[in-house]
Amino acid sequence: MTSAQVDQHRDGNDAARAEGSEGEGYQRGLGARQIQMIAIGGAIGTGLFLGAGKGISKAGPSLILAYAIAGLVIFFIMRALGELLMYRPVSGSFSEYAREFIGPFAGFVTGWTYWLFWVVTGITEVTAAAAYMTYWWDIPQWVSALVFTVILYGANLISVKLFGELEFWFSMVKVTAIIGMILICAGILTIGFSDAGDTASVSHLWSDGGFFPHGVGNTLMTLQMVMFAFLAVELVGVTAGESKDPKTVLPKAINTVPWRIAVFYVGALIMILSVVPWTSFHPGVSPFVAAFQKMGLAAGAGIVNFVVLTAALSSCNSGMYSTGRMLRDLALNSQGPKLFTRLTPSGTPLVGTTVSAALMLVGVWINYQWPGKAFDYVVSFATISGMWAWIVILFCQIRYRAKSDRGELPRSEFRAPGAPWTSWFALAFIGMVIVMMGIDKDARVSLYCAPLWAVILGVAYLVLKRRNPEAAAFRKR
Questions:
Q1: φ and ψ at 299, to 5 degrees?
Q2: How many CB atoms lie within 10 A of CB 444?
């Protein structure tokens, strides 16, 4: 590509940005405030509020290091995504980039896999939210699940702005809870109030069996749980087509990843494990609940239950948002039924969101009727399908960087520092996590499901390609 051609490509790209998402039919209803909180909330979920208890019991204080290292990898992934988003901000970005830089089949697999990830996640989260409601009221779980699903479904159909507003407040609750916990712990360490005041000390980080009480091997085994806690951090990429000013807002949101992880994960765990010895935590018990109980704060369990409830609703809300857009992106590229392209007058994907919400309700019913191991296996598959999006982002960024360096494509205005080496490092890290999943008998089942899903998608693509050759053609939008 000559310099004139690159300039022409860049001019066309800028024009597409100026046009916004009008070509896709979406409306730019997400402002800077909402994008920032979506980015923050995407990194904070039930993996921290509930799952960290199992990690602490398995790795002790060294879980802090696991979160720090994994957080660095997440930052590399997000900067790789940011470089692609500034090159071409589109809704359904993962599958769109996969089509351009890997091939139409990769786009097909990525779109449907990410859709499945959010449907399964939505099923588990809305079911969990219904279970959390029983803490206060003795009402059937299916009633709460139905009410939550209908409310979130309606909010997502009304407008993208309402989705963003809900996500803003869900994230605000999570952020406030963690900051509040950090401040309380800091007060206990410095002033010494509450029942934990006499024993609180930062020495708990190394004095109770050492920083690696169960060895480095067990710490490595927690990396899979740690990475699972970060799933959905990439959601900010799906919002690109509906951000009011993606060129300004998205880089700012992505650059907050390091301090988000440093404060909400590393900082929170340092403070909690300084106030409460790591030996006090057990799998299945929220470290926040355990810490509140140790401090003698009776209201702690209720507070954490409310926070975890909002975290579950936030995840389900994000699932409603992303599934509709992924199905519409597939349909626009002839890789899904055309009826998924329909939008409401306010610019939200009507049919795709409706189908996804209906499947979430079916999943709730299945979970209610047969709450056995089979459902747990489906849930475990969500983790490997979520990481597939990260792998695709990194591969696409590596290929895009190579093309832009050769002058075949315009350079992104938000280049990932250290790339492509940081992207290769992140890919190697994800590969190590997958190996760890294979070693862990509890997580291994998700790897068994992946080949089956790959075969289903492979057969579906061959049938689709035969019926509609356009499905194998990439058309830049």
A1: -80, -5
A2: 12
d(CA 195, CA 290): 13
Span 159-184, average pLDDT: 83
The three-class DSSP label of residue 343 is: strand
CB contact burial 55-90 (16+ within 10 A = b; e otherwise): bbbbbbbbbbbbbeebbbbbbbbbbbbbbbbbbbbb
- Dump pLDDT digits (tens) for 113-157: 988 888 888 887 887 788 788 878 888 878 888 888 888 888 888
C-alpha 77/C-alpha 181 separation (Å) is: 29
Residue 44 DSSP code: -
Give the residue among 164, 247, 271, 256 at the shortest CA–CA distance from 413.
247
Residue 465 has pLDDT above 90, yes or no: no
pLDDT digits (tens, 9 = 90+) for 184-201: 888 888 887 776 767 778
Measure CA 273 to chain center. Answer: 26
| Spatial distance between the Cα atoms of 156 and 309, rounded to a whole number of angstroms | 19
Phi-psi region of 276 (alpha: psi -120 to 50; beta: other; left: phi over 0): beta
Tokens read off for 159: 């407008």
CA of residue 102 relative to chain centroid, distance: 23
Query: Token pair for residue 202?
Result: 């930062």
Long-range contacts of 461-469 (CB under 8 A, 24+ apart): 461/105, 461/108, 461/109, 464/108, 464/335, 468/334
Average pLDDT over residues 37-58: 74
CB 275 within 8 A of CB 300: no
**Partners of 349 in the beta sheet?**
343
**If we measure between CA atoms, which residue out of 242, 251, 325, 237 comes closest to residue 31?**
242
